[in-house]
GH18 domain-containing protein (Spodoptera littoralis), 463 residues
Amino acid sequence: MRSFIVEKKHKIGDIKYDHFGTQVTNTKTEYCCRGLIVTSCFLFVCASAVICVALYQHGMWGNSDISDISGSLRSTVAERVISCYYNMPSEHATDELMPSGINPNLCTHINLAFAQVVSNEIRLEPHQYRTITEMVKLKHTNPDLKILVSVGGAGTDKGFPDMVLNHKSRKTFIKSVKYLLRNHSLDGIDLDWEFPALHNALGGGRERQHFSQLLREIRMEYIREKRDYILTVAAAAPQAIVDVSYDVDQLNLYVDYVNIMTYDFHSFTKYTPFTGLNSPLYQRSTEQLYLATLNINYTIHLYLDKGLDRNKIIVGVPTYGHTFSLVNVDNHQVNSPASGFGSLGSLGFINFPDVCAFVTNTENVTITRDNEAKVSYLYKNKEWVSYEDPQSVMEKAKFIIENKLGGAMIYSLNADDYKGECRGALARAGVAGFPLAKIVSKTLKSHISSSEQNMSLVQRRGD
């Protein structure tokens, strides 16, 4: 589910930290190695032929049945979507998030991750079907909850290209979709192909066209079945991928929502050996050229400029962070040279509870709030971590409200503090268990409630 232009991996209120005894710096950071960064990123992006060429004109089908299709979509948002990804536990899990630990009222949609495409069909492991059964039971408590299966994920590009290649293989896939949804009481599917046409320089335009055709055929099958099934797509954030992978007008026509992966803007790779913010809301004033595009605000307006309906835009909110190992402990700003992943977490990824534990149990950790990007990072010695906290996720929720977007996508429930163990500087009073997801959910839902009250007031005055 993670999108990163360089390399994929396998995978609130204001908070005042000073009275917790943790050092806080609110000053702007300096821009380090600007020329190196811009050059490295730009050359890497332009080295790929698929990034640097225009591939294909929009609108490959006629409009003979567009009205029928459009009428079947959720064109307005009565309440904002809170779409939560849940990584299904392994077969013999003992210390993972289980279905019984999920609050049925926390999310409006839960995407079960991940099924794969094998031999042109959806493929799940036997133990995953048991998880699906348990997740569907949550609807007994909240009948409005929607349970979807997400197909794909990072590093799973192999099955999609062959499946979308022709009508016969797509038909086989759609048949397996129908069987899965019918027989397991599911509400729809989420397609997380990372990424259409990106690795196919010669036939990229055709592959993108085939993906759009798949979306159309799934939607038409939903209509023929007379089922109110949901179709969503997990889409990339970097413009270099967006321009190559998606026909936005086709997304508008055939999908209910687009879960935009507005995270992994920066992580350590051999191409980007410097610190960076995982999910900045806005551009930092020192960022120019390509770096100036790596933020949520730019990405969302990119999709809007391409014509994506605001109601379909679901903004990704991560519950995990990225770790880095500093080259020089005295050079600890954003974009400082890094030698690799940090020692915290795993392979550069760190869950929110682990960030919280590090801050709580370690002395002299410096927490810095970047007031431009609206996110925080921390450092001690060589450890440098970009992460989300209660304040940053609330800022993202407010951004969704201010821009009248469709909702938020939480990635993932598993990386949030689902056990409610966070204490100290990063804890939020009165919020235990899934604190980041709860803050996003509460912020969006409270705004809907307030809007409904105002509308009711206007209607009464007009009577």
User: Anything to note?
Assistant: The chain is about 35% helix and 20% strand. The chain has a mean pLDDT of 85. The domain at 18-417 is CATH 3.20.20.80 (TIM Barrel).
